[in-house]
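Closing statement on the flavin-adenine dinucleotide sub-project.
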Amino acid sequence: MSQVDFQGRHIAIVGAGVIGSSCAAQLVLQGAKVTLIDRAMPGMAGPSRGNAAHIAAPEIIPMATPGIVISAIGMLLDPKSPLKIPLSHWPLLLPWIVRFTLNSQQTIHAANIEKLANINKTVFEDVESLYKNTGIEHLLRRDGALYLYETPKSLQNAAAEFETRRKFGFESESITTDQLYDLEPQLARIFSGGYRLPQWMTVEDPKKVVTGLVDFCCAKGAEFLCEDVEEFNPNQHSQSRAGQKSIEVKYRSGKSQFFDQVVLAAGVWSKPLLKKMGTPKLVEAERGYNLTYTDPGIDLQRAIMFGDRGVVATPIDHGIRVGGWAEFAGTKRPAKEAHFTAIDNIAAELFPKLNRKENYQWMGHRPSTPDSLPIIERSGTNTNIVYALGHGHLGLTQGPTTAKIVAELLN
Ligand SMILES: Cc1cc2nc3c(=O)[nH]c(=O)nc-3n(C[C@H](O)[C@H](O)[C@H](O)COP(=O)(O)OP(=O)(O)OC[C@H]3O[C@@H](n4cnc5c(N)ncnc54)[C@H](O)[C@@H]3O)c2cc1C
């Protein structure tokens, strides 16, 4: 991709999560004048704050897989499963579920794998490059990851997914139980085997990625504005440098401001703004839960995905984070205490020597699409507005790659 020089063009980015802050940093590096707008302070809101910290480029299998609808029904009936949908949320979720079901058809699923692989193929180099150019490279850990399975059947079932990942250039090697306990001696002796993914990276703390990127932008002259964006008015003429119509961004405080271009990166909360623009999108809050054990008493060398449990464990700079799950319950309900208790119990089963006394709980809203593909495109109603949202499970992973695509689209 050629690098556009924005020559002082004034671009507003709505949402300072990992997507908005990555876009801001990329645009600052390319000479744009950036105003980053968020109703919360950087690193304080959204799933970008407390996620599992993985740069998970090999995750190219969309959630909508063939057969998922049948297995989802079984999961919903099992109180121990990681999938939750409260009964009262079903009517609101229905359009998303219908599209999700369509995406689980074999041919569409295969096409979605290719699309996801196409985005993720440059993720590692994009992450390395943006983190280096913004001075946050020290946050990266290049320790690889493990995918583990408890039963021989689930280990066998997973083989095809790793074959697919290899086909698209993401390495993995099968490991035996002896090898895995050598690699991670603190694991419970309940596993049948798994895979090692050597390219996988993690970060020391996802919150520090956001604050580090925003600090870089502000040091280079960008502005951070704490405002709640109410709507865009794309029809105002102004003295735009590029001679285009400019866009008015209206804030709930009653103030407003004009920009040459706008990037909408407000995660799942982009929905009301998209609707007002006349371009509604199917993005749902897929809520994930985790606990961070701050005095774990054990060491973990690398990130671990537990294929049978729907949880992952990550060593971060202030402890071990364990969590995951998928609860479709909108953005307004409070977190459910019972889910934290269930994850805490799972953590105890996976790591018998884990000290669970000191911990903090967190729940975040993944902005999930029915095809697991992010929405990175020009607005259908105004080409000077670019959407960068819907990154589901992979926002931290795809932030720098998204930023590169957004810069091209703004050109
Ligand atoms: C439990 C869990 C674990 C995860 N683990 C990983 C992982 O390991 N790796 C990975 O790649 N991804 C992971 N994810 C997914 C990842 O966290 C998300 O995809 C990502 O954070 C989305 O980033 P975003 O910037 O699009 O949205 P957000 O983080 O939601 O940021 C949007 C921002 O917009 C602001 N905003 C919203 N509306 C407005 C408005 N009207 N005006 C002004 N500001 C507004 C919000 O305050 C917020 O700061 C995980 C998610 C969860 C929940």
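Residues 14-20, 37-40, 45-48, 51-54, 56, 228-229, 265-267, 269, 288, 290, 323, 364, 366-367, 389, 391-397 surround flavin-adenine dinucleotide (CB under 6 Å). With this model delivered, the sub-project is considered complete and its resources will be redirected to Aim 3.
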